[in-house]
Amino acid sequence: MNEQTLAALVVLVAAAPLIAIGLYFRSGRATHLLAGVDPKKVRDPAGLGRYVGIRLLLLGLLHVPFAGAVAFLPESQIMVATLVLVALVGVVVVRLVFGLSRFTSK
User: Cα–chain-centroid distance for residue 81?
Assistant: First the structure.
């Protein structure tokens, strides 16, 4: 197994917990685990679970094409794929954090 294939497998293994946690949050049973969100002030726990779960699923699924890029692109282009992944993850995380306020009361 060459180094790029091994790196792609590591990326896929790292994506698996994000996908699993996203599915768990999406079920609505884990909103109490969110840091910075008071469960007593949440207006729509099911909506919050769906919102967070979908964003975490998206973060995990973003790693799948990146793993493909790592496995098949030449080394000179992997840096570009990495920068694209970092930018997309940043956008998803910022939207996740700022969107949490929609589900809490003041």
Answer: 17
